[in-house]
Recover the amino acids of this structure.
């Protein structure tokens, strides 16, 4: 995998509705969404690294009217595989397909960059996320007991990216 993985221009509320790559100039929007949706999962430094590192991908979908980041997905490119690190959606915008849109965009971008597989961990109690990942073709491949700070188990999920196009074509948004 070679070349730049992030856009060199900043996203803005006048960009197309489709998920777009996010860059360092989108840091404040990523931090705000992270705080609202995930309770501050990553620090400012971690977010900056996600947005600047050439082997990391972050895509987001904007609300044009409010200049607000509605959803984002982030992942790491490692040895021909995408490791999905997080998917976040504004709490008041959940169950509207925005998480699915950014995750699909992330998976397709990784495939374009030569990745053949994607993997992730998800909390065993996160039924909404487990359903989303299953709808996109992720399958369970293991479990990490006590993985999260609260002692909850993580389910390991895996996807063959060759299948993603079949699952994203002909799906209503």
């Amino acid at each position: 995998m070679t070349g730049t993985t992030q856009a060199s221009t900043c996203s803005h509320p006048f960009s197309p509705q489709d998920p777009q790559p996010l860059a360092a100039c989108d840091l404040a929007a990523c931090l705000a969404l992270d705080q609202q949706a995930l309770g501050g999962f990553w620090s400012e430094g971690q977010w900056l690294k996600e947005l600047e590192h050439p082997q990391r991908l972050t895509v987001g979908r904007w609300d044009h009217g409010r200049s607000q980041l509605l959803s984002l997905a982030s992942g790491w490119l490692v040895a021909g595989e995408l490791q999905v690190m997080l998917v976040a959606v504004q709490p008041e915008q959940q169950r509207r397909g925005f998480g699915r849109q950014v995750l699909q965009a992330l998976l397709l971008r990784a495939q374009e960059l030569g990745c053949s597989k994607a993997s992730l961990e998800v909390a065993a109690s996160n039924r909404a996320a487990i359903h989303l990942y299953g709808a996109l073709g992720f399958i369970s491949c293991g479990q990490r007991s006590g993985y999260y700070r609260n002692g909850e188990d993580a389910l390991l999920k895996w996807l063959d990216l060759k299948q993603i196009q079949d699952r994203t074509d002909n799906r209503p948004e």
Remarks:
- The CA atoms of residues 145 and 151 lie 8 Å apart.
- The beta strands are 20-21, 56-63, 68-78, 81-89, 117-123, 139-144, 154-160.
